[in-house]
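Input/output pair, single chain:
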Amino acid sequence: MIEIIPSILSADFARLAEEIARVEKAGIRMLHLDIMDGHFVPNITIGPPVVRCIRKATALTLDVHLMIEDPDRHIPSFIEAGADQISVHQEACRHLDRTLRSIRAAGLRAGVVLNPATPLTTLDYVLELVDYVLLMTVNPGFGGQEFIPGMLRKIEQLDRERAARRLDFRIQVDGGVTVENLPELVRAGVDWVVTGSKVFLSPDPAATVAEMQRVAAQAAALRA
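Output:
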């Protein structure tokens, strides 16, 4: 099953618990939490205190995406706050192997993220350590950007590498996903799809999620 994962940044933070309850009823199983520090990316978003509050409001899997410098320094705080899985940028980690091992040693799923211009070869020696790879399909830091078409080839390449090495990590994408481009993303090999405003700003989140899952399932059937 293809996972549709709403990004919490599109929620109304004045009514956060209600917003989370709405998407829970839509049948989603994971929430994507974008953590930005104003250095690695231009924007500043949320930190461990907000993650802790979200943890109290839901039992959904919290997918914490660290778009920050020096992630090793802050990972323990996000673990303590209630993250279920944490992804770090290859571009921000001096010792990526050590960082991924530390996340897994804490009992969490570990993910690694690549910006659009970062080649897949930078992950050659860590793919055995990851539970998922997040390929940014826009340049990180801002919502509302258009999908970068060249990332389809990158997704396909990673899917081929996964099959060739008989690994079972998930491929996640984030940025510019629409109902229109969802089928080609799934056919390229994507398993987890992060969506921004598509779900949280929908007047009927359940219908929106159901439609995205229907489209994704049809594409996945062709991939099988």
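Residues 3-223 form a domain with the TIM Barrel fold (CATH 3.20.20.70). Helices lie at 16-25, 48-57, 71-81, 96-105, 151-164, 182-188, 197-200, 205-223.
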